[in-house]
Amino acid sequence: MVSGEKFFKENFHMSKNSFDQLFKLVEKDLAPKRNTRPKDGIPPKLKLGLVIEYLASGGLQRHLASCYRVSKQHMGSIIDQVCDAICRALSAYVADPCQESFLEVANGFNSRWNFPNCIGAIDGKHVSIKAPPNAGSIFYNYKGFHSLALMAICDASYRFTYLDVGAYGSEGDCNIFKESKFGTDVLHDRLDFPENATVNGVKLPFFYVADDAFPLCKRIIKPYSKKNLSAEERIFNYRLSRARRCIENAFGLLCSKWACLKKTLYCSPDRAQKIISACCMLHNFLITHKSTAYCPPGYMDKFDDENVITEGEWRKRISSDSLYHTTFSASAGRPSDYGKYIRNVLKQYVNSNIGELPWQRRAAFVE
């Protein structure tokens, strides 16, 4: 396999050092079995390179098989094996939902994005797949194509802290959340959330920020969506959008770097689920190790000292038909009274002398 630094950055979206680190983590899982016939004994590093290039380029499997001198018959099993190995080896890069990790995430959102008690930004996408045989319309979504749903939460540094991959595309987007284990745990308060923390003199629970695809409740706060918003409500929406922009950027980076997600995945739903999960795990691995080959300077949205935004380079690399644009549809769920109360307290806080930012009125277009 070619070993130049340029090759790794262009074909794998990572440095050679990152690739070598990754290989050390997955090597044992990729080693040929003892009873493997010599002609099928594909070197582990070759397997990893083949699959990483497939994920990064979105190239045709038969073309990559030819380039790596691997039989087309083995491509599918190699993809399964490598994606499974990546997900196992990198599972530690997704934080366990415990009080300690929640508080660490909340500190990040408060210090970087000036939004208190936030333990993550949540959103969902639809990944296009080939219609499975005899599946009927079970994977057919409201946008008019067959898909698997990807629901994710990220921290203030764009790392995914929760992933749910594999819900049927035909499920209503609000149901994907409500019927997932995570959604059930959130709605019934079953996770190891920290004790309420004081905001503007009021003890408030820790929560996720979301858009209208998710229900307003104790643990999920979303913008005001009525017409004729007051200046205070517009400022609150702006402040929340700063925090929610993290998941927007996380998905933008994911979709722009792993080109296999830009196209329809012509494989079984089980294999598609492994591919999507592996891309997300690789994203966390490379973000955690601050890989400039994966996320170079200027690639993400950036605010200057006056809060003027410079949009990230990833936005220029997202095509109109990208996975990025398949956001979950708005939910018609009834908001909880406690969720509305929390949002109102936060609105008062961001408009108070304690919580306001000097440029927020200009940024929210209220002056």
Number of strands: 9
How does the helix and strand content classify structurally? alpha/beta
Q: What is the string of helix and strand elements?
A: HHHHHHEEEHHEEEEHHEEHH
Sheet with most strands: strand arrangement:
3-2-1-6-7
Percent of residues in β-strands: 5-15%
Number of domains: 2
State the major sheet.
5 strands, mixed
Rg estimate, integer Å: 22 Å
Sum up the overall morphology in one term.
globular
Poorly predicted ranges: none
What is the oligomeric state here?
Answer: single chain
- Tally of separate helices: 12
Q: Give the termini separation.
A: 59 Å
Helix content: 40-55%
Mean pLDDT: 90
Q: How does this model look, in words?
A:
This protein is α/β, with parallel strands linked by helices. It folds into two domains: 5-89, no CATH class; 94-363, no CATH class. The chain contains twelve helices and nine strands. A five-stranded mixed β-sheet has the order 3-2-1-6-7, with helices on both faces. A two-stranded antiparallel sheet has the order 4-5. Helix 2 (16-30) packs across helix 3. The radius of gyration is 22 Å and the shape is globular. The chain starts with a helix and ends with a helix. Its cofactor is a divalent metal cation. Residues 122-284 form the DDE Tnp4 domain. Its main location: nucleus.
Task: Lay out the secondary structure.
Elements (H helix, E strand, L loop, with lengths): L4 H8 L3 H15 L13 H14 L3 H7 L4 H18 L9 H15 L4 E11 L18 E8 L5 E9 L4 H7 L1 H7 L9 E3 L2 E3 L2 E3 L10 E2 L9 H27 L11 H20 L13 E2 L5 E2 L26 H14 L9 H4 L4
Parallel strand pairs: 1-6, 6-7
Antiparallel strand pairs: 1-2, 2-3, 4-5, 8-9
Helix pairs in contact: 2-3, 2-5, 5-10, 7-8, 9-11
